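Handout for the seminar on molecular recognition.
Each group receives one record of this type.
Step one: identify the two inputs.
Step two: read the structure output and locate the region that could contact WQD.
Step three: write two sentences on what you found, then compare them with the reference statements printed after the record.
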Amino acid sequence: MKILVTGGLGFIGSHTVVELQNEGFEVVIIDDCSNATEKVLDGIVAITGKLPLFEKLDLKERDKVESFFKKHDDIEGVIHFAASKAVGESVEKPLLYYENNIGTLVYILKELSQKAKSSFIFSSSCTVYGQADQMPITEDAPVKVAESPYGNTKQIGEEIIADTCKVTPSLNAIALRYFNPMGAHPSVEIGELPVGVPQNLVPFITQTAVGMRKELSVFGDDYPTEDGTCVRDYIHVVDLAKAHVVALKRLLDSKNDSNYEVFNVGTGTGSTVLQVINSFEKVSGQKLNYKIVARRAGDITTAYADTTKANAILGWKAQSTLDQAMESAWNWEQKIRK
Ligand code: WQD
């Protein structure tokens, strides 16, 4: 069964390609390599023994998307990762984000709407909840006004899919709302490759530890949490990748209750920034150079998932602990800096 993975050379995309191939799916990747390299294919082959089909293509080029779907008319499912994801950049360049993240989604949905049956998995984000009023966050928590154009593209993306599903019974879609992905494949053949200075906590920690960054700034220790630092739900990227495969199978097997569903994908456990640093120090056996600085604009205090729905309906549960995810992130960082 042929599955298209857009953005399949990226961090979450590449781990999902591995899990799909492990389950026997035939994968075709589209990636424009704007934030990833073809070398990732070597890692995928090293783990799975199989080279996925790959087409370097910019999804903004509508005619090329059309010809791609004509050529691969046997695609039965699409997992759509391809998107721009830097929150700060999205504030500077909103139209780039709306074009990259919304325009391309529309083109793909137009193609899928013409099929007799299609299955679509969308990369959404816990960012749609903003600062939720209750923890843990269930899927019924209200969607709050987005803090950034990036966050808005995820909210609008979900709405576009929901509206399209309403009038297209042949289209079956699931939006997965990710919490904070981290880590790398245990084989250390693939992992996260941030471009420039990492914005996210875990790659910043590991890059500091290998000496690429002088020190980590911890953004604020005066939040109303256990130790004053913000709380997030850090999920191992392999667990997250597996959630995509079970969600896709649900659609392919027509087990879905409605043709548009939403699931949180997290561990259900919140960790503070200092607990994450502590985990790093434990698994690496080395001290991290960090200092407490002012709060970062736009940060929410606490976000962790209620995963009851995904556990019960998808039969999926995150398996890795924070320490295991951290160990894989650290092994990966050491490997790529050798
Ligand atoms: C985690 C915690 C920071 C860096 C992410 C994505 C965003 C969206 C939601 C996808 C926070 C603290 C960080 C540093 C720090 N995801 N921190 N020093 O803010 O939860 O956002 O999830 O749609 O795009 O980025 O993740 O990794 O940036 O921060 O103290 O140098 O670490 O303040 O509390 P966040 P993050």
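Reference statements: The pocket of WQD is lined by residues 85, 87, 125, 127, 180, 199-201, 204, 216-219, 230, 232, 273, 296, 299 (CB under 6 Å). The two ends are 38 Å apart (CA to CA).
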